[in-house]
Amino acid sequence: MKITESPSFSARTKVAEPVDQTAKKGVLYGVLAYSIWGSFPVFFKALDGATPLEIVSHRIFWSAVFLFILVVVRQQLGALRSIFNDRWLLLTLCGSTLLIATNWLTFLYAVQRGEVLQSSLGYFMTPLISVLLGFVFLQERLSLWQKISVLCAFLGVLNLAFHQGQFPWLALILACSFALYGLLRKLAQVEAMVGLTVETALLAPLSLGYLLLLFIQQQGAFLEGSLCLNALLPLSGLVTAIPLLFFIGAARRLRLATVGFLQYITPSLHFLLAVGLYGEEFSSRHFVSFLLIWIGLGVYSADTLWKNRPVHQHRKIA
Prior knowledge:
Order of helices and strands: HHHHHHHHHHHHH
Number of helices: 13
Mean pLDDT: 81
Shape: globular
Distance between the termini: 22 Å
Radius of gyration: 21 Å
Low-confidence stretches: 1-17, 312-318
Structural class: mainly alpha
Helix content: over 70%
């Protein structure tokens, strides 16, 4: 950390302390968010009786209800209204809304198809795509080792696509949609909970309309006899909102590259669940691809730790 010259040591300490506290809080929020997301396959496997689109609709609608109640309790209705009066901010949140909804739908589709391993691959790719986005849009510089880490991940995806005879499109959609979501939420200068309330509110009417249509046509899983689904589908809103609040809090406090680095927690847990609990196939081609991506993550992690190591400089005071 670069320390600028100032009249006294205490003055320097007062300037640096809030930055350190902000970073620590951002890391904590990131770890909590990614750990909760890492356990999502277990939760959403329990919703197997509902289609991915129905589950996403429940996630959006109940998240909107839960978040709106929190906004009212915290007396933030004024902040909520101000967003709808800011065209640029509202447009940014419309974009982030579409991205996160795409991510949710793709993830549920992968889980229900027994493709948890591919969802793991997608979220392993996300940190490195976040690094690239930070470089392109936020002028976050890439070191030589970070460029090597991105190249390793790219080779891993190509290897998997070459051996499977088809591109791992589920993994790519998951990675790109979530990395772009993180970028837009970093650019949108809005309080985490208020912004997320707007995102869910934008799609809540469509979600509710679709759920009512399913109910009228008796094609939905909700309120059709399964006590488990009747309880878990509304709960999916709470399960959705909490880690997203943590993530947005982390994204606003940390560099996009650092947020991407913490991302490895989620795919690691997905990988363990896919292979250890669900018995998905893990062949030699998967091993080579994942190894290349893990090498990329390892190189990036080592480079980040090296740059952020404590450096004790003894200054001669004149």
